[in-house]
Amino acid sequence: MENKHILVVGGSSGIGYGLIQHLSKMNAKVITVSRNKPENIESLEHVTYYPLDVKEELIDLNFLPDTLDGLVYCPGSINLKPFHRFSIEEFREDWEINVLGAVKVLQASYKQLKRAKGASVVLYSTVASALGMGFHASIASAKAGVEGLVQSLAAEWATQQIRVNAIAPSITDTPLAANLLSKPERREASARRHPLQRIGEVEDIVNGTIFLLSDKSCWMTGQTLHIDGGMSKVKLL
Asked: What torsion do the CA atoms of 25, 70, 54, 168 make, to the nearest 10 degrees?
């Protein structure tokens, strides 16, 4: 990753923050954007921050370098409840954050990605899009939209040598999931639902993301990588 220009959208906490820390150590040139400034960002080498709200109607990325080797879109949401209690506004909010925000960023950075002649885009889905899970109707449908976007763009941008892939995690120990993991019994119950008997750590998802950004995955595009403790594919007897 040394000297590669990588845009990380949503790098203020959780997986996004863990990612910019790792990329900094690998001497990548990181541009990170989010509503809130990441803590201690001044201590990270080769990392530049710009404020950005992906829900804004128009997104201006005029601060990007001429060439962009990688783009990771991290913003997400967790809103779980019975389907009949979801409002249309809540469905729209999940779609705005997870899908339309990515669309706007990708459209605004297309020229820079194209110039790299080998750029990699990484988006995030969820295990709930592949595995039917109650109370996940809003986020599962939004993330399924992300996976559809990944496949379509992978086909359309292949001639430009832009790879587009996704990662579909299960529940990961991040601030976004804090309410779901707030008590020891909740954490233990969540761990038991996974064949590998633990919840995800930020490091698990960051490692997969760096793989997809790197040349080690140069023959992969249009794929959704399931990093979920086996939940989507494995059933214990």
From this structure: -90
Give the DSSP letter of residue 160.
G
Say if residues 52 and 33 touch (Cβ distance below 8 Å). yes
pLDDT beneath 70, residues of the chain: none
Provide the Cα torsion 121, 103, 108, 219; round to 10°: 20
**Which pLDDT does position 179 carry in this prediction?**
85
**The amino acid at 32:** T
Q: How far, in Å, CA of 128 to CA of 135, rounded?
A: 10
CA 16 to chain centre: 8
What are the residues facing 166 on neighbouring strands?
123, 224
CA 11, 17, 23, 26 torsion-angle sign: positive
CB atoms within 10 A of CB 35: 13
Statement: the pTM of the whole predicted model exceeds 0.85: yes
Tell me the longest C-alpha to C-alpha distance in the chain.
54
| Residue ranges of domains in the chain, CATH in brackets | 5-227 (3.40.50.720)
Residues in the chain: 237
d(Cα 148, Cα 166) in Å, to the nearest integer? 10
Q: Please state whether 144 falls in left (phi above 0), alpha (psi between -120 and 50) or beta.
A: alpha
pLDDT value, residue 10: 96
CB 4 within 8 A of CB 16: no
Least Cα distance to 153 among 165, 143, 135 occurs for 165
